[in-house]
Amino acid sequence: QVQLMESGGGLVEPGGSLRLSCTASGVSLRDYAVGWFRQAPGKEREVVATITSGGSTNYADSVKGRFTISRDVAKNTVYLQMNSLLPEDTAVYYCGANALWGRGTQVTVSS
């Protein structure tokens, strides 16, 4: 079964950190560009960070310097390390690759 699965979300205080994981089955993430996206209530889904098959990364301006996308080929997993979290980072986070989407993981930043 080909699928992506996100994990690692939760409730964190402003200034805190979380690491999200996107694990694939049935598809090798090293062969595709992988993106992390997020969707806040009442807003459209937006791209947060991407990593190409060659390892090049790109970030939304709103998360530059705070978030880091990386890939572990052996684990077939792409990570999103999120530091210095802000309340406006609250959203459901999704990973996407090769026209596949996971179900998302909720990130809530609140005191």
Task: Describe the structure concisely.
This protein is mainly beta. It has no helices and eleven strands.
List the helices and strands and how they pair.
Layout: E1 3-7, E2 10-12, E3 18-25, E4 34-39, E5 46-51, E6 57-59, E7 67-72, E8 77-82, E9 91-97, E10 100-101, E11 105-109
Parallel strand pairs: 2-11
Antiparallel strand pairs: 1-3, 3-8, 4-5, 4-9, 5-6, 7-8, 9-10, 9-11
Description:
By secondary structure, this protein is mainly beta. Helix content is 0%, strand content 51%. The protein is built from no helices and eleven strands. It has strands at 3-7, 10-12, 18-25, 34-39, 46-51, 57-59, 67-72, 77-82, 91-97, 100-101, 105-109. Strands 2, 4, 5, 6, 9, 10 and 11 form a seven-stranded mixed beta sheet that branches. Strand 9 (91-97) and strand 10 form a beta hairpin. The N and C termini lie far apart (39 Å). The model has no long low-confidence stretch (mean pLDDT 96).
* β-strand amount: over 45%
Described by strand count, sense and barrel closure, the largest sheet is: 7 strands, mixed
Query: Residue-averaged pLDDT, rounded?
Result: 96
- What is the N-to-C succession of helices and strands? EEEEEEEEEEE
Spatial extent as radius of gyration: 13 Å
Tell the overall outline.
Answer: globular
| Helical content (DSSP H or I, runs of 4+) | under 10%
Poorly predicted regions are none
Strand tally is: 11
Number of helices: 0
Q: Which structural class do you get from the secondary structure elements?
A: mainly beta
Straight-line N-to-C gap: 39 Å
